[in-house]
Amino acid sequence: MTNNLIQSVVIVGGGTAGWLTAGIIAAEHQHKIKQGELQITLCESPSTPIIGVGEGTWPTMRATLKKIGVSETAFIRECDVAFKQGSKFLRWKDGSEKDFYYHPFSVPQGQSSINLAEHWLNTNDPMSFSTAFHPQEAICEASLAPKTITTAEYDAIVNYGYHLNAGRFAEFLRKHCLTNLHVDHILAEVTEITQQENGHIQSLITDRAGIITGDLFVDCTGFTAMLLGETLGVEKISISDILFTNCALATQIAYPYEDSPIASATLSSAQTAGWIWDIGLPTRRGVGHVFAKEYQSIDHATQQLINYIDETGGDSSHISIREIHFNSGYRKEFWKHNCVAVGLSAGFLEPLEASALVMVELSALMIAEQLPRTTSAIPIIAKRFNERFSYRWERAVDFLKLHYLLNQRNDSPFWQDNRQPSTTPLDLSERLLLWQNTSPQHYDFDRTGEIFHALSYQYVLYGMGFKTNLVFSTPAEIQKMAAELVMKNKMITRQLLDILPTQRKLLQKINLYGLSSI
Known about the structure:
CATH architecture of the domain at 8-55 and 165-237 and 328-391: 3-Layer(bba) Sandwich
Distance between the termini: 47 Å
Strand order of the largest sheet: 5-4-14-15-16-13-17
């Protein structure tokens, strides 16, 4: 292989994935860009619409936006942003009215030194696991914010990510990349992709910008995967036998009143053959029904979505519903030759737990940090990238399946079939066997870059009523420490319920005054 310098990165496709990737790579390599040693170019079609469903982020987005130089105040004002503090799952366990649990973003105090789950299991406390050790569930139930107006940008009193308008976010990132990060922008349709003799991508032939050459190409072309899939022939691994949903009906709902509460968590309400998401933004709610077409007709799923909207204070009489068909899965390779896929071109799992945007962040961060200096380094870095992201996608599949596997519902074949051992990945089955006698622990998830940690598994396991029968008793001193933490949490919860503003009040203040910069 000829050993040439990597001097040009071409990102194909815009949207959130394309512009976030451009921003992360450009921010990491600003010195090279300003010195003329590296060029970042984003080429996007002027006519391809943005999928725009992914409106939830993880707390990682705070560090990402800060890294690329974005003001949190500007981001909140321009992208119709609200704070997200986790997910609330309704009727996933048995379908009853009182059936709900939380997967909050915050880590309980003391979690790093003792296994709080084992104390909770030993005491048979009727209080939910997520409530016992952290105030976040109570904060979310009261629709409160995770900070106050005097908390600096990106700082938090309790951990948070965001709910946002995906279309506005992509446009916001585009303006930031072009104005502040020196990313070049080309609006053109790619009509042909040429390759070198060794299979590497050589250039893009466009309808209005001529030929675009590059050293490294990033495929952000969405489900079509124009570069990695169509040109380089990398196949997709289907996981439809594990995660059954394959269609989403998405719509937007106005609030009934100007001062209607804004939910502090993503609401995920189980239905006959899937679930409904409900995301609160300052100006509207984003609501959608994810379901499996093999178990439910689109007409029936639409009616369930309409019923949900009407039952939760919305007006379904004038809504426009968009159908999105998908097949959950991911590529056998994410980086082949001089092309790496990010976003929907790399893979897509149903939107439960909002893993789409965090996969974009993690991919772009690794590309930025490991950006090959020369073409001879590409195979080594590609191998690392593929190993890490194959592992991450596998673990994401495990975690999403866990939500379905533990259900006790008998109202439809969809939920019954999700309990079948044949639909469960082997690694997850083995871990569940271990967790019959011990709660999830750090060393169950000890690889660098784990996407879901032991605490997340604990929140879901014990929220869904999983039974762990501890073989050994917990030492008295550990039980005492944990009991003290429970009492301390009750005190902190009362304090925070008193001092934290509602989501809507804080967002109104941010729009008026802004947050203080760090």
